[in-house]
Write a structure and sequence with these properties.
69% of the residues lie in helices and 1% in strands. The protein is built from 38 helices and two strands. A hairpin with a 2-residue loop joins strand 1 and strand 2. Helix 7 packs parallel to helix 9.
Length: 700
């Protein structure tokens, strides 16, 4: 009997254990299924953005629900971005039932904050360094410790972003007690961030009257004050900053002499204010004084830039000496391109060839290789035209590893070779140099540019915008991630934009990866960078107007990047950026000559691609005929034909390529080069022409 009972007991026990194991297995299977990525979790993120973009009333709950759903996505990037979007929503609603584990730390801190769990908020966000963590920690510390120092410090010195504005709203909504003085400083910062500088200054005047040392304690506050003075009340700013400068030198205020940022900013903004009212000598003295107090490379370069910029504007004959003094001390060559490029043109216009050579020798080993190519090509042309002799160029011989017996022809070819070989230089200078050397400027053959099958999470996140029909909303996210994406991933994004006919964005992204140091140029990338939309319209009207199609493509790409709806601040509209008066006059001329009538109710619909390209091509064709060659026509298209004729008549002896360098209007001068370079590439890519031939034809 005992054996029977024992057997029955063991049988029941075995069955029980089997049942337990089965339950565990089912539980594991259930958990396994819960971990299976569900597409709708990711899709919900894009849906939330689309709903928000429509700005409909009563959609806040829908937006929040979808962002919360996307916290369950298998994509770490979507979870992170959803958490970022939810933080202000959670803080605004102050109610949450989010139950997702492993959520973003800032979002968790925001949830704790809404539940008045200040100590836990501080613990969760301890050592976190994001704007939201700083704002939440500062507000929680105020509630926990009933002391406003951390909150005031954050609002006085942090960047004015969404987290900052939430903290400011919190002060008002929760009646946090800050002094009138502190509130005036904070409201001034908010106004300055919105470029309301007059309003900002009104707030700052309250602080100035009661406790000016607050500006000395917080450099960001002092920086906002300097900007507000610069754009609203310069004499008042100069008087006050000079007064503070004097105070900081007195024994009574010696404690602030140990704050180098304050001392730097006072001198730096005195320089900017004096420059603004064209008192260049005083401004230069202040920038030189600020330079001695600069704390980092960025501050040093800023001071040097202002000193050189003022010389270029006011006394360009001083710039050579200043370059000799400062060039070895600056850090980022590209930062000074907008000084050195127009300076090259100034030297060319004034026939100061030896100084141009000296400047080239100073910059030739710098990082801005496009600038090196510009100087090198012009020096080659100066030698070719006899403006620069071999005797003048002796300093260049050893620098270029050439012997003293080098002929002038060999030296000019050496300069052309430098410009030709600079892969980062404009195709304009490279093509011109290739023409002088008798070489062809060709690209690498078409490469297989297939993206890897396993895309990164970030790339999948960005491509998901287009899959969800939200491609128009992707740019802020792409801009935040673009430095972390590989060349292949950026190329995929450029291709995606092109497929969506978002040409400006496609071109812009292509330029980002093409400027990377490890980038190798290919024809396929050039086809992305120089696309061919509106093909039938552009090539059809180029043929009708007897224009090279590559020239019309180059003009349209430069003017509008193929955005038919674009309008400039000056009022130019559409693909060829027609001014309304020009469009109306040219449209009437087309109609008089038997063409279509594009005028309706006294206006032209310049956003219509057909009308715009037809009128723009007709106008350009008439300029080519009246001005004599394509380059002058382009310059007239941009700067006005009367002005360009006057400039050309003042320099009749200079060859056309050197004349272009002498044009003092930066926009017009650079426009001619950009359209030429684009036309050269279009001719090469799509019309079986050499780039050198296309550029040379521009000057015929």
């Amino acid at each position: 009997m005992f054996q029977v009972l024992s057997f029955a007991f063991h049988l029941v026990k075995a069955r029980f254990l089997l049942l337990v194991l089965l339950c565990v297995a089912l539980s594991c299977k259930s958990e396994e299924r819960a971990d299976i990525p569900s597409p709708q979790f990711s899709t919900a993120f894009y849906e939330a953005l689309l709903i928000r973009s429509q700005r409909s009333d009563g959609t806040e709950a829908d937006i929040r629900e979808r962002f919360e759903t996307s916290l369950k996505s298998a994509s770490p990037r979507i979870r992170e971005e959803a958490a970022r979007e939810l933080i202000p929503i959670v803080l605004r609603d102050k109610e949450t039932n989010i139950r997702v584990t492993n959520i973003d730390r800032d979002l968790y801190g925001a949830i704790l904050y809404t539940r008045n769990r200040w100590k836990e908020t501080l613990h969760v966000l301890k050592d976190a360094d994001s704007p939201w963590s700083k704002a939440l920690s500062a507000a929680a510390r105020y509630h926990e410790e009933e002391h406003e120092d951390a909150l005031v410090d954050m609002l006085m010195d942090a960047p004015v972003d969404s987290a900052y504005l939430w903290a400011l709203d919190t002060i008002e909504e929760e009646h946090i007690r800050l002094s009138e003085l502190e509130l005036a400083a904070i409201y001034g910062r908010r106004a300055a961030a919105r470029s309301n500088f007059s309003d900002a200054l009104n707030y700052f005047r309250v602080v100035i009257a009661q406790n000016p040392r607050l500006f000395w304690r917080y450099p960001a506050l002092l920086n906002d004050l300097g900007r507000s003075f610069q754009y609203s009340s310069i004499p008042e700013g100069v008087a006050l900053l000079l007064q503070w400068e004097s105070l900081l030198q007195s024994d009574a205020d010696s404690e602030f002499l140990d704050i180098p940022t304050v001392r730097y900013l006072l001198r730096y903004f005195l320089g900017r204010l004096e420059r603004q009212r064209a008192r260049y000598e005083e401004a230069e003295d202040y920038f030189q004084a600020a330079l001695l107090l600069a704390l980092d490379a960025e501050q040093e370069d800023a001071c040097i830039w202002y000193i050189l910029n003022m010389a270029l504007t006011n006394k360009p004959n001083r710039l050579a000496a200043l370059l000799a003094l400062y060039q070895q001390h600056w850090h980022d060559d590209a930062y000074f391109e907008d000084i050195l490029s127009p300076y090259c043109c100034y030297l060319t216009a004034n026939r100061q060839w030896t100084i141009l050579l000296e400047t080239f020798l100073r910059i030739r080993n710098g990082r801005d290789r496009a600038l090196v190519a510009q100087y090198a090509y012009i020096l080659g042309r100066a030698l070719d035209e006899g403006f620069l002799t071999i005797k003048d160029a002796v300093p260049a011989l050893s620098a270029l590893n050439l012997g003293t017996e080098t002929t002038i022809n060999a030296l000019e070819r050496a300069f052309y070779q430098i410009a030709f070989e600079e892969s980062q230089a404009s195709f304009y200078y490279r093509a011109l140099s290739a023409s002088r050397l008798g070489l062809a400027l060709d690209l690498a053959p078409v490469q297989d540019l297939v993206i890897e099958a396993a895309m990164s999470d970030d790339l999948q996140f960005l491509i998901g915008f287009f899959d969800a029909g939200a491609g128009s909303l992707v740019l802020p996210y792409l801009n935040r991630l673009r430095d972390t994406l590989s060349i292949a991933e950026l190329r995929r994004m450029a291709e995606t934009f092109a497929a969506e006919e978002q040409w400006i964005e496609s071109i812009r992204i292509a330029s980002v990866y093409m400027n990377r140091q490890d980038y190798e140029m290919s024809r396929a990338d050039m086809e992305l960078y120089y696309p061919r939309p509106f093909k039938d319209i552009i090539e059809g009207y180029a043929l009708d107007m007897n224009l090279p199609p590559q020239l019309l493509y180059g003009l349209i790409r430069t003017e509008s990047a193929f955005d038919a709806n674009i309008a400039s601040y000056a009022g130019a509209i559409g693909l060829t950026q027609l001014m309304p008066a020009t469009a109306l006059e040219e449209a009437r001329r087309i109609a008089r000559n038997g063409g279509p009538n594009y005028v309706e109710n006294g206006k032209v619909n310049a956003r219509d691609p057909v009308a715009n390209v037809h009128i723009g091509a007709s106008y350009l064709s008439s300029l080519v005929k009246s001005m004599g060659n394509p380059m002058l026509a382009l310059l007239g298209y941009n700067g006005g034909p009367t002005r360009v004729r006057r400039l050309r008549n003042a320099e009749p002896a200079l060859p056309m390529d050197l004349f272009l360098e002498t044009i003092s209007i930066n926009e017009t001068r650079n426009y001619g080069k950009r359209v030429s370079a684009a036309a050269a590439m279009y001719g090469y890519l799509y019309f079986d022409l050499s780039m050198t031939a296309v550029v040379a034809d521009m000057f015929r």
